[in-house]
Specification:
Elements (H helix, E strand, L loop, with lengths): L1 E3 L4 E3 L9 E6 L2 H11 L3 E15 L2 E15 L6 E15 L16 E2 L4 E3 H12 L27 H4 L5
Parallel strand pairs: 1-3, 6-7
Antiparallel strand pairs: 2-8, 3-4, 4-5, 5-6
Length: 168
């Protein structure tokens, strides 16, 4: 099993023609701090991913695996720290750029273009983490609903009722 970092760029030309490249990515403390700042987390305690990279068709590669992380975010209602364990399945398809004379049908909503023939494994894991975390975390102490304050002002159209003629 190969060890990767968040800076790892995988050249698809070096991948085995059959079978898969298995690897493990473990973010360092400094990388976790950088990602926490990038995504607005209070803390990213750990981030690791186990991946398989394999060619599925000529010019097309899949990255599959599991991302595991420990994240601390602010409660969206109270601001209190909220810890979350992330366990996310990784599935990403990359496609080689083709010449204008080549005809190929690829659903780009489901595939990422290769950057210079390389897969940016660290960026894929980072973006997957951003997708996997709870977007609006809530602490256990957060109220069931939140009201910013009572609004005692009358409704702007409340005065129209008195203008309405009773003859109508």
């Amino acid at each position: 099993m190969k060890t990767f970092t968040l800076d790892s760029l995988i050249d698809v030309q070096t991948l085995p023609p059959t079978g898969a490249l298995h690897g493990h990515l473990q973010a360092s403390t400094a990388e976790c701090a950088d990602l926490a700042e990038r995504f607005g987390f209070l803390e990213l305690r750990s981030l690791r991913a186990d991946v398989r990279i394999f060619e599925v068709a000529k010019g097309s590669w899949d990255v599959r695996g599991k991302l595991v992380a420990e994240v601390v975010q602010s409660c969206s209602m109270t601001g209190e720290p909220v810890a979350e364990s992330v366990d996310f399945d990784l599935e990403e398809r990359y496609v080689q750029a083709v010449g204008s004379d080549d005809e190929i049908v690829v659903d780009l909503d489901e595939a990422e273009p290769l950057d210079g023939g390389r897969i940016d494994l660290g960026e894929m894991v980072a973006q997957s983490l951003a997708i996997a975390v709870t977007p609006w975390p809530r602490s256990e102490d957060a109220p069931a609903s939140f009201q910013a304050g009572e609004d005692d002002r009358p409704h702007p159209f409340a005065g129209l009722a008195s203008l309405k003629s009773s003859d109508t």
